[in-house]
Batch of 4 targets.
Target 1
Amino acid sequence: MASSAASSSPSSLPQKRTVESILEHLRSGPPSSPTSSPTRAIASQSQSHSHSQSKKKARKAKVPDYLTTSSQAAGPSSAPLKKRVLSTSTRLYVKRVKIDREKAEEIRKLAASLGAVTTDLEHANVIVTDSWSQPRAKAGLRPQLYQEQAHVVHSSWLEDTAEQGIYLGIDKYRVLPAPTSSDAFADSSKFSRGDGDTSIELATTDEEKTDSATDGESDLSHSLQTSPEMRLPLRGLWFHILPAKLDKAGVETIKARLLALGADIVPQENADAIISQAATAARVKPFLKEKEQPKVPLLQARWLDEVETRQAWVDPGDRYVVGFPEQIKLTWDKIKQLSEQNRTPPSGSLVAQRVLTAAAPDPATVETGSGAAAAEALGPPDADEDEEEPPALWSREGSEAGSPERSVAEEQADEGGESLDDYAYKNSFFACERPSPLRCINQELVDQLLILQKQRELVGEKRSALSYERALSSIKAYREDLSKNPVAAASIRNVGPKISSLIKQFYQQGNIAEVQQIRSDSALRVMMDFMELYGIGPTTARELYNQGCRNVEDVIQVGRSYGTKLDVRECMKILPDLRQKIPRAEVESIATTVMNKANELLPGCLHTVCGGFRRGKPASGDVDIVISHASHDPGTVCRKLIEALKSEKLVTHVIGLSNMTDSDDHSHTRHNVAELVFKAKATKTNPAPIHRRLDLIFCRREVYGACIVGWTGSTMFERDIRRWAQKKLNWKFHNYGITDRETGELIETPQEIDVFRELGLDWIPPQFRNCDA
C-alpha cells in the first residue's frame, strides 16, 4: 500500500513520461532485492506459482471477500435482515470504549440487520464507537485509519438510521474529523491546469542554467522548461526523502518525481526540506537525525501531487507533517532565495540536471515518421510561424474527459439541426424507446445515482446495480426539472419506492447521504482504477483487490489486463498513454489514417466510427471503427489491413484477434474483432504521438446496420434493444446481426435504419442514445 500512495500519478503526460524514464535510469544500477517492493514480491510469487504448476496442478486458494462478507474477526455477528437501509458500502467495525463485549455484539447485529458488512479494523470504512471523546476514540488506532480511510462516528448514528428507516448523513454523528482520502469518483480533469492559472512558477533564466550545466544539460533543461505542459518548479532546491511508510520502490518513485520537477536529492543534514509519506511526528521521528525539532520543513508527500498538477510552486498550506508546531515554514521569498544561490550539491547527491540528461531518450531512437515528417518532428519550434495550423491533437487539456468541447447534439441544435425536442418523450420501460441526451436537466441527481450503481456493481450486487442503472437511465430521459417537484419521480418507469426516497433526500439535503460516504472509500477508488484497464470488469477488479493488489502495477505484475498479452515491462511502458482520453479531433485523424490505408488495399470499404464518439462525447477511451466490404470476407479485410498497419508501424501491439459468431447462426453473422494499440506517425502538428487503443470490427454488408447499432451503444440502449427483440418478436439481437430464434433466419440490416424498422422502433439518432449516466 505504501507504493500505491507514493506513486500517485502526476497530472501531465510529459511529467509521467519523465518520471518513468528517471525510474528506469535509477533502476538500471545494482539489482534490488527481490522483495524490495510489493509489485516485485507479487511478480516473484507469480513466477514461483507458475513453476510449481509445471510439477503439479495447483489448487486455487479461496480468497476472502472483504468487501461483501462479514469477517469473523469482527465477531460472530449475524442477524436477520430487517430492512436494507444500509448496504455493502458500509463496512463497519465496532470500537469499544466503555461498553462490554455483549453490548458491542448488539451493535454489530444491529448493523448487520440493516444491511451493513461487519468487518475487521483494517478493512473498515466506518468505525462506530460508544464515546464522544476524541482521545478515547483515537486510542489504539493507527492515525492513517481515521485520517485517510475510515469515518469515526458515534453509535447513535446506527440507532437513528434504524429508527428513521433511511441512510442518514454521518456529519452530525462524527467523533473525529472526516478522513482526507480523495474522491473515488472525482473527475481528474477538474484539477487540470488551465490557461487561467496564475500560480507563480519558480524559475531561473536561461543564462543561469547555462552557467550551472554542461551544454547538453542546458539544452535539455531549456526544452523541458519552455514546454507548455512540463516545467521545473523545484529547480535549485535540495530535498531529502524519509523512508517512513515506504518500501524501496516507493522511495525510488518519490525520488523520480522530485527529480522530474527539478529538485536535487541530498543527504538529510543538507536538505532545504524533507519529504515524508507519513503525516505525523510519531511516524517520522525515528527517521530524523534531529529528534526533537527539525531545523528544516517536513512536507507530506501529497504536496507533490499539487505541484505536479499545477506544474508550478504551490504553498504547502496544511501539507506539513503534523506534530512539529515550531517547524520552519517554506515561504516564497525563502524559495526564491534558495533557487538563486549557486550551490554545489554535496557528495552522494542526485542532481536533477544530470539525471534528466542521462534519462532522456536518445533523439536517434525516438519513433518518428520518415522523411519530411521526421524532419518536422525534430525541426526548430519556430519554423513556419506564419502558417495557420490546427490545434495540436496531443495537448493534454484537449485529452481530458472534462474538455470544454461541446457535445455533437448541442452543436447541431445551435446550427438549426436536430434537437431533443424533435423527438417525443416516452415514459417507457425500454431505453431503446427513450431519446436521451449526453447531459440532462437532472444530471446532478443522475450522477449521484450512478455512484450508488457503481458501488453495487463493484461489490457484485448485480440485481441492485441493474435496478439503479435502469432508474438513472429513465431519469436521464425525463425532461422536467425534478427539483421543482421531486415526488414526480415516482411516476417515472423503473423508479421504485426506495429510489424515490433517495431522490427526495437529494433535493431536501443537497446530496444522498450514502453517496458522500462512498466517495471517500479508498477500496472503491482502487477498484475504479483497475477498471480503466483493458479486460478488467467489476468482478475481476474485486478479486484483484481481495488478493492484495492496490495499484495498476500490481495488476500487470500478476498477469491481468494487458499483462496477459504483453511483457510486463512493455505493459508499464505504454500504460500511461492508454489511460489518456482521446479528443474528438484525434479520433477523426486516426479513423482517416486507418481507412485511407483500407481503401488503398481494397477500394470500396464502408466504415463508421462508433462508440462514445458517435454519441457526441468530447473524449473517448478508445477508437471503435466498424468496417465492411461488399465483395470481400471480413477475415480477408481484417488480415490485410492489420498486416499493412503493422508494416508501417502504425500498429505497435496486437492485444487480441477474434473471429466472433453466434454458434446457433450461420456464417453470415461472422465478424472479426481486432484489439490493437495504435500510434500515429510524428508530424509537425503532433510531434509526440502517444499510444491509443483501437478496436476494428469487420462485418458482412448484410449485418452492417446491426453492427453499427451494437457498437455505438450506449450499454443500456443496447441491452434494452436486445430485450425488446426477444420479448416483442422472439428475435435475437447482437452486434453481429438479428436472427429469428425459432427458425435461425437472418433478418438483413444493411443500414442502421433497417434495425429500427424491422424491430418496430421509432428512429433515435446516435447523439440521443446516451442512456447511461
Target 2
Amino acid sequence: MLKVIPHYNKKMSWQLVIAGVCVHLILIYSIFDVYYTSPVVHGIAPQRVSNLDSPAKRVFVISADGLRYDTFNNNPEKNPNIFILLFKIASHIPTESRPGHVALFAGITEDISAVAKGWKKNPVEFDSVFNRSAETWMWGSPDIVELFDNVPHVHSFSYSSQEEDFASEDASKLDSWVFDNFEKFIKKAENDTESSEKLRKDGVIFFLHLLGIDTNGHGHKPHSKQYIDNIRVVDEGVRRVQELADKFFGDQKSAWIFTGDHGMTDWGSHGAGSDEEVLTPFIAWGSGIRKGGARISLAQIDVTPLISSLIGKAVPVNSMGVLPVQAMQADPQFTFRAVLSNFLQLKAQVTALRNEKSNRFWFQQYPNFGDKAMDSLESEMVKLAKARRYSVAISLFSENAMQLKSAIMYYHRYDRAFLGSAVSALFISWISLVICYLYRYPEEMSLDKAFLTPKPYFWPIFVFFTFFCFYCKISLSQSIYVLLPVYIFALVENGTLYDSELVSKWTNIWRLNCLLLMPFPFFPPVGVSTFATLCIISPAILAFACYRFSTKPILSRLSPVFRQLAWILAATAGFILVVHFFERPPAVARWISWLSIPLALILPFFSSSHIVDRLIVFSGAFFVPYSLLSINYESLFTLLFMPIVAMFVRFEFAHLSDVDFLQLNLEKAANPKRQKVGLAELRRAVICVAFVFSSLFGTGNFASINSFNPSTLNRFISVFSPFTMALLLVLKLLIPVLMTSLAMSAIVRFDKDAIQRLCCVVLVITDFMSLCFFHQLRDEGSWLDIGMSISQYIVSMCISLALLVLLFVSSHMMTLKLSSPKNVYLFKSKRVPSPSP
C-alpha cells in the first residue's frame, strides 16, 4: 500500500515559482490560439467584378453612430428627408463602434484577437472597401476614421477626441462639424483643378461618421430630447451634403447609404445583443439602388459587397458578406458578374483555409459543401448566365451562400478540438506537478539538473510529438501546447513521490447571509440600469450598524472607532444623495470623490494595533470609494459580503473567547514547527476562492467592463478617457478582493510560510477551474458574452499568483502603523485593562 509522505521546505523553490509564472502565461496566451484567432486570411487574390460600367461612380456612406432603429422609425417628423427610404439592418455583435464599422466596410466580424491589442485602433491589417476604391475621403471621430486611413489614397479629417464629452449639453455639434467641413472641402475643390479631378474619378467613396447621436445617447439616454433632436440635425445635414454633391458632380451617378454601426439600450450603453443594440436603420438611394418596393432587412456585413458592387470594385478579400441584390438596380449582366465575384471571393477563402489545414493527420473535408459541390455550383452559374438566365443563376448563389460561410467557419475552427485537448493536458500535467511538490521528499525531489532531465523512455515520446508538430506545420506557440505537457509529465514521473460551540452559535447567521448573497450572480449585470436609492441606502445601513455596534458593552473598547466610521458613512450617503440631484456633478464633488481613494488607503494605518480594529477600519474605509463607484446593487452586495468575511475570521479563531479575540495583536504568531497541509488549509483555500469569485462575478462587474455604462464613473469623470476609466473600474473590482486578502492574512497571522502553502492549495483549485473555463470560452455572440468568458478564464488563471501578491501586501498593510498628531484620536479604541486571570 502506497503512503504519501508530506513535507514542506521553509522557502518555496524559486524554480517552481518561475515555472508556475511561465506555465500560466502560456495558458493565458493559449486562448488566443485556440478560441480567439483572427478571421483575416492572407494570400487571397481579389476578384474583380467585370469591365462593364458600374451603376454608380461614387458612394456616399453616412454612419450615424449609436442610432436605434425604433427611435428613428418612431420619429419620422425628425427625419423627413430620408425616412421614406427606410430599411432595417441587423448590426454585428459585439455592438461597439470599431467592430460595427469593420463589419460595414470590411465585411468581417470583429477580430477577436484584437481584444488583447487595444481599443482605440485596430492593429490587425485587413482589407476594406476603402483599400479597393480609387480615392476615399472621410470625416468624423478619430477613433473610427483612423482605422482605415493607412493607405495613401484614403484621406481622413477628424476633430479632437477631447470634444467627445458624455456630459455635453449639445453633442450634435460633432455632427455639425462633419457637415461644415464637408461643405468647406467641396467649395475648395470647386476652385482646385487637381482636387476636382480626383473627386470625379470612378470608384470614389465618401464616408461621414456622425458621433453626436451616440454621445447624446450615453450622456442623456436614447429617449431624451437631445438624442431625438440630434436626429433632426443629422437629417438636415444629409440634405445639405446631397445638395452640395449633386451641384458639384451634376451627373446623377452618386449612390447614397445611410446606416448606423449599432443601436443603444434604454440606459445608454451598448455592447451586448439586445434588439435595441443590434437593430439600426439602413437607407439607400441614388444611382444603382432599387427604387420603391418592399422594405428589406440586411446583415451588417452585407453592406460591404453592396458598396463594392455599386462602384464596380472587388469585394474585400476576407469579407463574409453576401451581396443584397434585392437592393440593387443595375443591368442584369452586371448584377450577375457582381454575384459571381462575390461567390469566387468566398470560395477563395474556403480554398485557402482548406489548404492550410489539409496536412493534418486527421484532416476531413467540410462534409456539407466540399470542393466538388463548389465547382459544380460555379459551373452551373456560368452555364445559366450563358443562357442569359441571370436571375436563376443569382438565386442559385443566394441559396448556397450560407453553405460557403459555414465552410469558412468550419476550417477556421478546425484545430480547436485538437489544441483544446493539448491545453487540457497542460493543465492536468501542471496540477500534477504542483501536487507532487506539496507531497514529496525534499532530498529526493529537489528541482536540480537531474530532476529536470526526463527518464530515457520519455525521449522517444518527445521526439514523436516533435515530428508530429513539424509534419502538421503548426505554429511555435501551438507546438508548445503539445510538447510542454509531455515534458511536465516526465518531471512528475521523475521524482520519488511515494513510500511503500462558537461556530454553532453563528451557524444560522452564516447560512442566512449565504442565502442573501446567493441571488446576486443571477441578477442583470451592473450597468444595465442605475438605482441610486440602493447606492444611498447601503452606506446609510452600514452607518446605522456601526452606531449600534458602538453601544454594545462587549464592544465598548471599539466604541470610538465605530462612531467615527458611522459619521463617515453617513456623510457618504448624504453626499451621494446630493450629487444625485445634479445631471452633471460639479467639480468640487469630483474632487471629493477622488480624495476618498487615497484617504481610504491611508487612514486605517492610524488605528490601534489589534487585528479586529484594523480589519474593521479597512473595511469601513474601503466601503466609501466603493459606494461612490457604485450605480446599482453592487454596494448592497458588498454590504452583505463584509459580514460573511468577518464571520469566517471569527470561525478561524473559534478556540478563543470573545474577549481574547478582540485583544488579538498584529504581531506575527510564533510557529517554529513545520506543518503539513491539512483540512484547515484546504478549507481556507476553498473559502478564499469562493470569496474572490463571488466578489468578482457576484455583481457582474466584469460585465460592466465589457458593456460599459458611463454612468458608473459619473461621480469621478465625464470626459472619455479609457485609461482613467479602466483604472477606476479595476479599483472597484479589487476592493472586495483586497478585503478578502486582508482577512486571510489575519487568519494565518501574517506567516509567510502559511501564506505560501495557502497559495499552493489555491493554485491547484483554480487550475482545475481554469481547465473548465477554458472549454467554455466563446468567440461569437455579444461583446458582453465574449468578455465574460475571457474574464472567467483570466481571473481563474491569475487568482493564485495575484492572491500571493495581495496576501503579502495585505500583511504589510495590516501591520503598518502611523502615529496621529497629539490630541487627535483618529480611529483610536479605548484602552481596556486585561482581564484578571
Target 3
Amino acid sequence: MESANTAAAWVVVGADRDPDTMCARIRAGGSVVVVGTPGSGRSFLLDHIRTALERDGHAPLVIRTGRTLSSVPFGCLEAAPDTRAADLREAPDRPSGLTDTDPVIVIVDDADLLDSDTARSLTARAYRKEVVILAAIAAGSLRLGESFDSPLADLWAHGIAQRIDLRDLTVDEAFDLIDASTTARPLDKATRAKIVSLAGGSRALLTEAVSYAAQARDAGRDPLTCLREVPPTSRFGELLIARAAELSGPHTEVLATLGRVAGIEFVDAIRFLPEDDVEELISLGLVFDAGAPSRHLFAHPLIARAASRRCRVGEVRARLDLMIRRMLDAGGSWWSEAIACELARRRHRGDLELESPPREDLLRRAIVDAARAANDDAQPAVAIAYAATAPPVERPDHLDIEVQHASALLEGHPSRHAVDAFSTSFRRERRLDPDAAGVAAECAIQQRGRLSRPLSPLVLLTAANAALLDMRWSIAEAYARCATEHPTSDATSAKESAFVRAMSLCVRGRLDRASQVLAGTDAVTTTTPRQEGADAVGRLIVLCGRALGMQVNGIEVESMRDRLRREGVRAAAADDRLALVWLNHLAALVFAGLGDAGGAAREARLALIRGASFRLSPWSSVTLMYVARALALLGDTSAAREIWDATATPSAMRFTLVRHAALMAEAGILEAEGRHQDAVTRTRAAVALAELAGTPLLTAWGVYQAVALGDRTENDMTRLSAIAITIEGEMGETLRTWAQQITSGAAPDSPLDRLRLAGPWAAPLVPGPARRARGHAIPLPPGTENDTGLTRREREIAQLAAEGMNNREIAEHLYLSVRTVESHVYQARMKVGARSRRELGRMIGPRQTRRTA
C-alpha cells in the first residue's frame, strides 16, 4: 500500500499552495509556516518542497518531532541524524557556527510538537538569519481556547515568516488530484465520485481511498462496492477511525445515529437530536444535506460506522428506539421513511422491543417503506423478506405491488400491474410497464379525460417515453403536453416532459427548437444547494439524452465533463446506486465523444455490470449502442461486440429507436470484423427505419454510413442535399460535404477510416459554422504519433497556449469553460513533466496550421 501513495503517484493540487513560490521565498532567505488541519496535505507539501530544494542543490536539515521528544530538552534536535543539528543545540542567545551568508534551511513537520528548547533556538536563529525555517503546524493547535505558546508563533506575527493556511480540497481540486494520479487511472467515474464524496475535502482520506479502491480493482473486485465496507484494519480504515476520534462525544453519538437513518429529513432529525450538533456536522462535511425543502440528510457512512464503535454500548440503539416509539405514538400524524426503514430492519432481525405492540396499519406502512427502499437499492430478496413480516390485510395495497416488483426483478422480467394504481409510489424506479402505460394513455387521449379513474402524469410520461423510443414523435409530444398540463404536474414532470419534446425535436434535426426547450429545463437539472424537483436519476437520464443529441448533431461533449463531476458527487454522497449506474452511462458517452476508447469501454462495461440488478430505462440501451458503435470505429472491436451483445436483449429491441441504434452500431462492428456485406445490409435497414419514422437527421447519418461503406446509389447525394436544407444546425451540410469528399476520392480508402471522419472526436472537413459547432477540433498531423500520452484536446490546448493565448482566450476560442481549460493545461503539464505553462508550450510547440478566426 505504501507504494501507491508515494510522491511519484501524486501531485500538489490547490490554489492555496504554490510550491514554486514557496521555494523561491525560501531560496531568498524567507521562512514559511504552513498551517492546516489533519489530512490537509501539510506533510506531502513539505516533502514536495524538500525534493525541489534538493534537486536545486540545497541540503535542507530535516527535524523530526513527536510527543515523546517534545518533553525532552532539545529532544528533537538530538534525534536529528544531521550533524548540523549540534550547532543549533547551543543556547539561543549564543551565536552558532552557522553564518549569515550561509543560512541552513530547516524543515520541521508537526512543529507544534517541538520541544520548547528546540523551538526557542530555531526562532532566535531565524531572527539572526542563521536558518530559514519551513514548518508545518496542525490547525487544531491554533483554535480558540487552546494553548499554542511556541516561540514559532512569533515568526509570522513579526513578519519573519509567511504564514500559509491550507484549506480543504474543493470538489474540482479533488477530481483534478485523482485525474493526475497514476494510481487512479484504472478507476471509473462513479468510483472517483464516491472517493471524492468520502474524502470530504481531506487529501489524506482521498489518497488512501484511491489506494484502497485501486487495490480492490486489481484484485478483481468492484471498487465501488468495496468502498461501502472498509475493514478497520486497513490503512484507509485506520484513517477513518482517527477521523472519528477527533469528534467530541456529542458529535460522535449524533453522527452514529444519523448513520443508521440515512436520508432522514432535517425536520425529523432535529426532533430527536440536538439541532446545533446536526448543523455543525453538516458544516464539517460529515453529513451531506441534499438540499431542496425537505433537506434529506446522509451521514458519512464510513466515519459514522467508526463513530458508532466509539459510542457506549446500547447508546445509539436507545436513541433509535426513542425515535421509533415517538413516531408510532404520533399515530401517523408525522412520518419518517428513514425511521420506518429502521423499524422494519429491527423487526426483521427480531430485536425490536417496544412497550406495546404497534398498530397494524402503521407497522404495514413502515414495512412498505422498507420494501420500497430495498427495491430502489436493487435488493429484491430483502424487500420480499421484509414483506413476509407484515400483518395481513384484506385488499391488495402498496406492499403487494412492491412484492410483485421484487419478484419480477428476481425473475428478470418487468412488473405487470395496473398503471394507474398507486402510481405516485414508483417515480424513483420508473416501474410502470411501458406497454400498459401506452394503452392507458391512448385511452385517456381518446376520451378526453372522461375516465372512471384518473391518470397520473407519471403514466402519461411513461407512455410518452415509450412512444419516443418507438419513434412516434407526434404521439410522444402529445402525451408529454398532457402530463405538463395535468393539475398535479410538478417540476420533475415538467423536466421529463421537456426532455421528451426536446429529444423528439433533436433526433429529427430541429436543433434550434430542441435547444430552446432544453433551456427551460436547466433550472431543474442543475445541482444548486436548494434545488427542487428533478432527482439524480432523472437529471442523469436527461444529460445522457443531451449527450446523445449533441453527438448526433455534431456538437462536442467536452462541456459535459463538469456536469459529470457535480452529478457524481451528489449521487455518491446520497449513496444513490441507480444514479451512479447512470453516471457510468453518461461517462461512457462522454469518453466515446472524446475518442477515448479505453475510458468508454470501461464505463460501459461497469454500467452493464452494476445496472444488471436494476430495471433500467430503455434509454440505457440507446446510450450503450452509440458507445458500441464508437468503440468499433475507434478500433476496440472486441469491447464493441461485447457491449452490443449484452445490450441487444429482446426487451430492449422491441423499441424502434433501440433497433435503429443497434443496426447502426452493428454495421460498424461488422465492418471492423471484416464482414463488409453484412455491414451494408444493416446500414440500409437502419436507413429504412429512419425514413419510415420521418427522421431526416438519422436518415442522413444512415445514408452517409452507406456511402462511406462504398454502397452509394444515384439518389444518395440528392437525399443528403435535400436533408441539409430541411434540418436545423450544420450537421446535415457537414454529412453532405463528407460524402462529397468520399465520392471525389479525397477521403481515405478504408471504409472504417471514412466512418471515423464522422466521429464526434474527428476534425471537421468543412469551414465556418460547422467547425464552430464542433469546437474547432484540431487533429494531429497525418502520421504523427501522440507519444506524449496527451489526449487530442490536451494537445490542442497546449498548442494554443504555446501561441501565447491565456486560459480565458482559449476557453472563448474553443467554446469551453475556463475551469475546463485550466484542468487540461494542468493534466498536460503532469503528463509531459513540464514545470510551468511556458515550458509546456515549448515542449509541445505551436500548431502547424493557421488558427481559424
Target 4
Amino acid sequence: MESALTARDRVGVQDFVLLENFTSEAAFIENLRKRFKENLIYTYIGSVLVSVNPYKDLEIYTKNHMERYRGVNFYEVSPHIYAVADNSYRSMRTERKDQCILISGESGAGKTEASKKILQYYAFTCPASEQVQTIKDRLLQSNPVLEAFGNAKTLRNDNSSRFGKYMDIQFDFKGAPVGGHIINYLLEKSRVVHQNHGERNFHIFYQLIEGGEEDLLRALGLERNPQQYQYLVKGNCPKVSSINDRSDWKMVRKALTVIGFNEDEAFPVCVMSGLVQCNYIVTCLTVAAELRVTLLLSVFACLYLVSLLTVCVCVFVFVCLHQLMSPLNLEQASSARDALSKAVYGRTFTWLVNKINASLTYTDDSHKNYSVIGLLDIYGFEVFQHNSFEQFCINYCNEKLQQLFIELTLKSEQEEYEAEGITVRHHFLLSLSEKFKGIISILDEECLRPGDASDLTFLEKLEDTVGGHAHFVTHKLADAKTRKVMGRDEFRLLHYAGEVNYNVNGVSSFPILFPSSLHPFLTSFSLFSVCLCLPLQAATQFKASLAKLMEILMSKEPSYIRCIKPNDSKQAGRFDEVLIRHQVKYLGLMENLRVRRAGFAYRRRYEVFLQRYKSLCPDTWPNWQGKLADGVATLVKHLGYKPEEYKLGRSKIFIRFPKTLFATEEALETRKHSLGETTKLQAGWRGYSQKFIKGFIYRHRERCPENEYFLDYVRYSFLMKLHRNLPKNVLDKSWPTPPAALAEASEHLRKLCMQNMVWSYCKKISPEWKHQMEQKMIASELFKDKKDNYPQSVPKLFVSTRLSISVSSLSDGLFVLHVSSDDNKQKGDVVLQSDHVIETLTKIAICSDKINSININQGSITFTVGQGKEGIIDFTPGSELLVAKAKNGHLSVVSLLNLPHSQSDGFSKLKAEM
C-alpha cells in the first residue's frame, strides 16, 4: 500500500490514518471525494474498510482480482473488500480462531452487495471437492432466496434488506467451506400490510405475479396484475425500472432447486398467494352474502388457510365449556387480518431460513471441529416519515453495534500496544452513546398490567418514567417549537446518528386464537396459542436475540466494513457532501480515526519495513544479516528519525506522524531512480533463471511453453560452440557432441562442413599439388595396410628429383637408378643390367610418369656408391661387349658400336617424347 503514497495528491491516501490533518472532518471527506471521483471506492482506517457505493458496475471483482488478493499481506495491495475477506481467512487458518466480518451502514450503502462479494471470493479461492462444491453453490444460492423473501424496494434502496442476517461459514481443517448457518433478526413484517409511498412489498410477491408460470397462477387463483391486490399497491409503486421481477423469479426457482427444495416443499409460494388475497377476502367475509363467502372460501381452501381466516372475522369465547363465536366488525377484522398476515409471513420466513440451514448443515462426523467466519449484514440506521416500533428495534440494534464497534476497536488498539510494549494514553475519548435500558421493560410492564393496554397508556408511562432524560422527549414534554413537528402519539429519541420520532400506534393488538386443524406446514409455526401483545413478544425476543448476537461477536476476532451511501438519488458519480458528512458522523468514523491516531499513524512488522526501505541505508543494503530489530534501528538512525517520531516494539515499528512516513517514501522514490536499472536487471535475471530451471526440468518432453526457452538456448549454445570449434582441415575429425534434440541436424551439418572443406581445398590446389595427391592416392592403394613403413611415408612429399635413371647411348644393357642420398644415407645408386633395357626403362617411365627423369649420357655416367663417394662408368665402343674395372677405379664398359635397329628406334622415340 505504501507504493501508492506518491499519488496521494491526485487520489488521496489509501489509509485515513495517514491524513496529516486527521482531526478535520473536511479533510476526511475530501479524501473520500478524491478517491470516489477516480472510482477508488475502498479506503482503510487502519484495518477498518470504508466502502462508498458507486451505483455502477466496476471491473474490480474479476477472477484476476481475486487471484491478486489471494494469500497476500493486508497492506501489500490496494484497499479492497477481497483484502478484508482474505485477511480473515488467513487469520482463521493460521491462528485457529473464529473470525467475523461486521458490515454496517445505512440502507442503500451496499451492505448486501458487500456480503455477496465476500461469499463469491471464498467460493472461488477456497479449495473444493465435489461435496464442498455443493456447499459452495448452496451458500451462494441462499442469497437470491433470502433477498426475494426478505428484501424490498424502499425510498433509499431498490433492494433494501428488511431483516438482519448473521451467517456462519464453516471451514474444515483444509480450509474448505463445508457448511453454514444463518440467523435472521427482526424481519420487517409490517411491510406485508403497509408500505410508505414510493415503496413496495417484499420482492417475492411481485416475482410470483410477474414471473410465475400460467399453470401455477391458475392453480393459486392469481392474476398477472399486482394492481388487483391491495397489499401490493399501498405504496403506489408496483413496478421498478431497475428490477426485473420475471428474471428474478427464474433465479429464485433455480436457487430453491440448488438448495434442495422439492415440489412438496414449495408451500411458501402458496402462502404468498394466500396473503396477497387475504385483504380482499376478509373484507368480503364481513360484508357479503353467505353464498359469496362460500364461493370465496372454496377458492381459498386449497391453501389450508380457511381456519385461520375464520378467526379474522370472529372471536371465540368459552362460556361454561361451550364455545361461542362472536363476529367482529370491519375495523376489528381488518386489524386481525393484518396481524395474521404479518405472523404467517414471519413464520414462513423463519421456516425458510431453517430449511436453508438444514441444507447447509455440516454432516461429516469424522471432523466435528471446524472453524468459522461470520458475516453480519444488519440493517442500518433508519429514519422514515413514519417510524414504527420496528424502526425503534432497528436503531436500538445499531446503537448496540456502534458501541460494540468502538469498544472492540479501542480494545484491539490497546492490546496491540501492550503486546508490543508501547504505552499510549487516549486523552480525547468521550463517553459512549447512552443506551435506553427502560423502554422495552416499560413496554413489557404496560402490556402485562391488568386492564386494557393501549398505545397512549404506554406513551404516558414513558413520560412518567424516563421523561426527565436528556435524550427523550414527547409532544407533552417538548417546547413550542418542537411540538410543531411532533404528533401527540410520538416520542423522540436522540441517537448517536441523530434525532428520530417514533409513533406508538400498534404497540398493542387484539388477541388472536389459532385453531389446531391446520396444514402441517402451518403447524410447524407453533402459532396455536393465545398471543397477547405481539409487540411485547417481538421486543423481548429481539432483545434476547440481540444479546446473544453480541456474545457471538465478542467471541470472535472481528473485521469491519463501513458502507457509505454517496447520494439519495442512487446516481453514479454523484457525491453528496452533506449526506456523507452525516454518515461519517453517525458511523463513528472520525472517532475510530482518532482512536487509531491517538498513538501511532503507521505500524509495520520489522521484516516488512526493512524489506521496503533497506535501500536507503548503506548498512542495510542489499541485505541485513543481523537481527531484524537491529536492522530497523540502524535504518531509522540513518534516516534521521527523532525519538518522538517513532517507537520500536517487540516485532513492529510504530511511526507517530504521517509526514515522517511521507518523507521516507519520497526518499525511496528518489532512490528508485538510481536503482531502476539494477531492479530491471534483477527482474530480468530472475525471470531468465526461473524459465531456464523449469525448462531444464522439462527438457526431455515435447516442445512446450515450459521448455521452449531452454531448448532454444541449448540449440543456440551448441551452434555457437560449433562455430568456435569447426574442424580446421579435411583431416581434422573433431566435432562437438550435440544435444539429443539436435543429433540429426548435427550429422547433416558435419557432412555439409566436410563437403565444404573438401570443395574449398580442391578449389585452392595447384597442378603440382594435385599431382602429389594423385601419387599419394596410388601409394595408398598399393601399400596402405600392406607395408609397415607406409604411415611414415604419408606426410612426406614425392620429390621429382628424388629418383632419376641414367643410361648410355651405346648398345649395352646397363642403366643406373639414382637415389637421393638424403633418403638413404648408407646406400648409393643402383646399377642394373637388363637384356631388355629399352622396354624396362620405358615401362618404368610410363608407370612413374618420369619420362624426363631418364638421362642418356655420352661417354660416362657418374653415380653414388656411398656417403660422399662417387663412381664412374666409362662407356667405349667396341666389337665385343665387355665389363671390367679399369686401373683408375672406373667401371669400364665396352659396347658394340652399332645398335640393333629396333633398339635404335626405341631410343629415338624415347628422346623424341623427352
